[in-house]
Structure formats: structure tokens, C-alpha cells
Amino acid sequence: MATESESNDGPFTRWVQGAISDPERTYRAMFYVVMIFFLVTTLFPLYYLLVIALTPTSAIQDMGLLPKGFNPGAFVEIFEVVPIHFYLFNSFVLATVTTVIVIALASLAGYVFGRLEFPGRVPLMLSVLAISYFPPAAFLLPLYQLFQGDVMVFGVQVFPRVINTPPAMVLPFSALFLPLSIFILTTFYSQIPDGLEDAARVEGSTRLGALFRVIIPLSAPGVATAAVLTFISVYNEFFFSYLMVTSGKFTNWAPMVYGILNYQTQYSTLYNLMAAASIVAVIPVAILVVVAQEKIVSGLTAGALKE
Amino acid sequence: MGTETETRTQRDAGGGRSGAYTRSVRWLETLDESQFAYLLLAPVFLLLGLIAFWPLLSTFELSLHADRLTGATRVGEFVGLQNYVELFTGQKALVNPFFSLEQPLQSALVVTLVFTVVSVLFETVIGFGQALVLDQDFRGRRWVRVAIILPWAVPIVIQGMIFYLMFQPGVGFAVGPLSDLGIISSQPFNDLGSSLLLIIVADIWKTSAFMALLILAGLQSIDRSLYDVARVSGASRVQQFRYITLPLVIPTVAVAMLFRTIDAARVFGLIEASGAGCTTVPSLSCQVVTTFFTIGRYGTAAAIAFTTAGIISLLVAVNIARLARGGL
After folding, report:
1. So what's the pLDDT on residue A46?
2. What is the pTM of this model?
3. Minimal Cα–Cα distance from B86 to chain A, Å?
4. Is the Cβ–Cβ distance between B38 and A108 less than 8 Å?
5. In b/e form, how buried is each residue of B244-275, taking b as 16+ CB within 10 angstroms?
6. pLDDT per residue over A248-302, tens digit each?
7. pLDDT of residue A43
8. pLDDT band of A7, cuts 50, 70, 90
9. Whole-number Cα distances in Å, B198 to A24, B145, B172, B201, B226
């Protein structure tokens, strides 16, 4: 595959001459070199996790390309040391609940922005967009005080204390990832021909009837795209996952972030378990990427490059 | 758009449901299109108002209040822009300086700037390369695409963990050789320069894919017949790239870079999870968190948060202007 320049002068000269006379061949060779380079650089860190995970704790020293020993038992031990499965479960629940909320709200907003004409449409849309650009740190302080139950208006507590419970994470997640889904769904809804909706209305279906019977079924691919991206985003999120749970206990709905970090803080020499836990936590998103790669590609591009 | 016929059919309104439901469906029919739009948007803006708009204003309000006793000032007293003035003149005693002329490299502003600029530049170049590879037709392209997207889907905490395991002295093989060469120190996570370098590498590893996907979309929107014309005219591959691909894909690259810049400027999780920690690498987001949680100075933390938001708003304004020109 890759072009090998050899120390011997003959073949090398021949190869250079070939390259000059047939540039296409050189481009092809270059392409394969570059492609393999990218494959190695993107996959090596994940492979390295496997190397560490399979090496027994005592043998971990200056790890290179191959595991020293073979200890698949690490993948069982991780569940015994830190109940990583509960943390993963928490992350799944938080991601699922957030996805449901985001899809419900973004479907409404996407329909309105994509299909209706009304005064203030552009400013409202821009305000939604602007939110997605602000750093989470800009919302953190008031939100933390709100979720602590410390915000008072005329001596009345505005919001119950929800730190260490799902709402403290689900609410910021929803606000954080809503704009992207609104964007994706607006694009999808605006592509549905007007005639379909008009036909349904003429046939005598109500506004909601037309929305639920005609428009929403047609937007299923857009909804799936937005759902996949939202789920992955929540699963990957660090900032609020880390700061809105003060205890770090899975019984307080601490997500996977804490499951992984607990190894670093409490079992700071069990490197093989850190790696094994990381692999287990990556598997769900890896499967999602393989299954839904088209959706991810179209969603990311629709969300960013709206011409 | 929707006809304004006020048809009320028994099939939709009713269907064995309660009277209240029927009445509300009928009431919806009496709204005009704008009212209907605002009604559907209400829940969205209720959530965004509580979780985003209000906190932003509240952060600004908080930043105008004192957080310690200085002379006649009490905690919580209104001090106007004093917090901001003290931040930029380096009078604040923080865990790490926000901005200081004496130690510019250790200040949050400079660290964030260096991280953002360097990582976005490298991501652009690498992402462009990946996009060019994915733009070709070859067997197994689907799987190469999966491999390139995979790092993007790796959770931040695990991205940090991977680099923690690679550069933990004694665990990864690379620390020894690299510190012998003087590229990183022998305890990389205790040293700002080394940590910053590793965090930049980790960021490039994870987010080049995002760049690649956006640039790929740009490449695929180029009219292929242009290349046919160029080939017939005898343009080489290099010339085709230089005179067709590059000029047509530059706008996309610019947008992608803006997105990545906005995103990189908020770096926090990677720093915490990689073992470097916020005290070693004080990014702006880090500094908000340490000032708020570690030393409990709310006014100052809010001022840092709002300044960060302000810097990013400038970038956002550029993007909004672009979108507004494009007519959404």
C-alpha cells in the first residue's frame, strides 16, 4: 500500500521516474498514506485504553503498544470496585429524559420557525441561537443558587432545592442542547411542502390534527437526527454533570462523569480499572456512531451550516 | 401558509374525548397564525428564560456587588464596575490571576487564548485533511468515516482519562522520551506549559472530526462539473485544488473555525478530567468555578463569567451578522 523508498538506488530511481510520468499514481499513494495516518491517530488512543485495561495492575509500567499480560478480569472488577453500572444507568436516564424534553420543545419551535410567518420570527430565532454560543459558566452561578433553593423573591423561595437530583442536570442540559435541535428541526419542517398541510386543512382537519397527522410523521428523520445528537451531547457533557452533583454518589443521580472520576480520586493506582471503565462507558456511544453515522453527519452540518 | 378556514370537524374535535379538550381544540382554530405561533413557542421560551436568559442577566447583576470587605464596602454592597476594574488591573487576589502584566502566561485570559488559537488552527488543518480523505471514493469509506467520527463521540471525561493514562509518569511510555527531549516536564500534569500542550493535543484529537464533517459538507457542495472543465483544460490536481476547491470551501472553513473557537473558549471538563486540574491550567471557565466554589467570591466569579460571555458574544455577533445577511 504505502510507498516504500528503498536504500537501493535502482528501484528508487525507477519509482521516482514512475511518479513523475504518472502523477495519478503518486496521488493515490499519498492518499493511502494520509488515510492510514488519520486512522492510526484517531484510533490509537482508544486502542491504548485496551492495552492498559488488559494489563494486570502490577505489570503497568511504561506501557507501549502491547499489553503486558492478559487480564480480562478487569472488566468484571470495575463493577465491584465502583458500581459503574449505576453511574451509566444514571447517565442513560438523564440523557433519555433530556432528549424527550428537547424533542418535544424543539418540534414545536421547529414547526413554528420552519412553517409559520409571524412578526418577530427572526429576532426570536436569533435569541435562541445566541444561547447556544454562551459558555455554560455564564449561567452557572445563578442556576446553582436557584437549584440550591437560595433564590428568594419577596421572602418566598422561587424554586425548590434540587441539587443532587435529576432536575438540576436535566434543566440546564435541555436549555443547552435545545438550540441545536431547534435548528435541525426548523430545517426539516421548512422542507415539507405547504400543499400537504393545506390539503389536510381543506379536508377539514384541525390545526393540531394537521400537525400531528401530517407534519410530524413526515419529520421523523429530522426528529431521529436531533434525538441522536441530543443523546450523545448529554452523555458527553461534563460541566453541569460535574458541578450540579455535589456528592458524587450514584444514589444522588451522579452521572458517568463521576463514575469515571471516582477511580482517579479514590483508587489512584488502579490504572487498568480506569481504562476498563472508560472502555465500557465508550461502548454505547461507539455503537450509536456506527449505527447512526449518517444522522450525525447531517445533523452536525445542518446545525452549523444553515445557508 | 395555512388557510384561515375555520372548519371544525367532529372527527378531530371530539372523538369521545372530554368537553374541555374539544373546547380547547376549537379555541385553537379561532387564533390567527401569529397567535398560534406565539402559543407554541411559549413553553420553549419559558424554559430558556428560566435556564438561560435570566441567569445571564442575574450573573451581570451579581457581578456589580462586592464580595469582600474593603474599607467602607460591605459584602453584597453595590460597587458598580469595581469588580471588573480590579480584574483587569490585577488587584484581585485569586487562585490564579485573571490577567496580569507581571505573569501574563499564567493568567486565565492568556491561557484560554493560547489554548483556543493553537487548538483551532491545528484542528482546521487536520480536519481539512480528514475531509479531503473522506471526499474520495474508496472501498471501506464508511468505516474510515466511523473511525474519524469516533473521537468526537467520546465523552469529555474519558477523553481526559485517556490522556491522563498516557502521560501519567511511569504508566505511559511517552513521558520519559518526551521529557528527555525537553518537550514536556517529567511531571507533565504539575506544570502549566506541559499540561497546556497535552490538553491542546487531546482537544485536537477529539474535535478535528467536527471540523472534518463541516468542511466535507462544504467540499461536497462544490459543483463537480467545475473539475471536469479544469481537467479538460489540462489543470493538474494541485491546480484544481488551488483554484477551485480552496476558494469555494473557504467560507465553510471560516464558519467551522468560528464554531470551534466559541467552543474551545469554554474549555473546562478536559482540564479537570485529564489530571491537570484548574489550579495548573486556569482557563476562564475554570476560574469561574474555582472563584465561586473554592474561595466563595461570588461577585468576582460573576464578573469573570460575564467577561467570558462578553468575549464570546463578540464572536457570536460576527456570526449573527453573517446569518442575518444570509436572510436565515
Report:
1. 94
2. 0.90
3. 19
4. no
5. bbeeebeebbebbbbbbbbbbbbbbbbbbbbb
6. 888 888 999 999 998 888 887 888 899 999 999 999 999 999 999 999 998 988 8
7. 94
8. low
9. 38, 25, 13, 5, 42
CA atoms of A13 and A6, how far apart (whole Å): 10
**Contact call for B269 and A142, based on CB within 8 A:** no
Q: Which three cell numbers stand for residue B264?
A: 474551545
| pLDDT per residue as tens digits for the range B144-202 | 999 999 999 999 999 999 999 999 888 888 888 888 888 888 888 888 999 999 999 99
Q: In this complex, which of A43, A122, A281 lies closest to B328 when CB atoms are compared?
A: A122
Distance CA B33, CA A215 (A): 16
Give pLDDT, residue A6: 47
Query: How far, in Å, CA of A166 to CA of A168, rounded?
Result: 5
CA distance A49 to A53: 6
Strand A152-153, strand A156-157: pairing: antiparallel
d(CA A238, CA B185): 27
Closest CA relative to residue A129, chosen from B34, B116, B48: B48
Tell if the CB–CB gap between B305 and A141 is shorter than 8 Å: yes
* Residues B169, B175, B176, B179, Cα dihedral to 10°: -120
Chosen from A206, A229, A263 to mutate, greatest number of chain B CBs within 10 A: A206
Q: What is the mean pLDDT of chain B?
A: 86
Contact list in A for residue B308 (CB cut-off 8 A) is 135, 137-138
- pLDDT exceeds cutoff 70 at B7: no
The pLDDT score that the predictor gives to residue A197 is 83
A53 touches chain B (CB under 8 A): no
CA separation for the pair A178, B11 (Å, rounded): 34
Taking only Cα atoms into account, the Rg of chain B, rounded to an integer number of angstroms, comes to 27
**Average of pLDDT values for B122-137?**
94
Chain B contact for A237 (CB, 8 A cutoff): yes
The kind and range of the H/E element at A152 are strand A152-153
> How many other CB atoms are found less than 10 A from the CB of residue A12?
13
Query: Model confidence over A140-188: pLDDT tens digits?
Result: 999 999 999 888 888 788 888 888 999 999 999 999 999 999 999 999 9
Count of pairs with CB atoms under 8 A, one residue in A, one in B: 326
Contact list, A278 vs chain B (CB under 8 Å): 158, 161-162
For residue B56, give the nearest of A42, A134, A286 by CB distance: A134
Distance CA A149, CA A298 (A): 40
CA distance A3 to B253: 31
Q: B129 to chain A nearest CA, in Å?
A: 8
A125: contact with B, CB 8 A cutoff? yes
Is pLDDT at A8 greater than 60 in this prediction? Answer: no
- Of all residues in chain A, the one with the smallest CA distance to B143 is A290
CB-based contact A99:A184 (threshold 8 Å): no
Q: Give the residue from chain B lying closest to A125, CA to CA.
A: B328
Q: Which of A46-60, A117-131, B19-33, B280-294 has the lowest mean pLDDT?
A: B19-33
Residues of A (249-278) whose Cβ lies below 8 Å from B: 256-257, 260-261, 264, 271, 274-275, 278
Mutate to test the interface with B, among A140, A183, A294 (most CBs of B within 10 A): A140
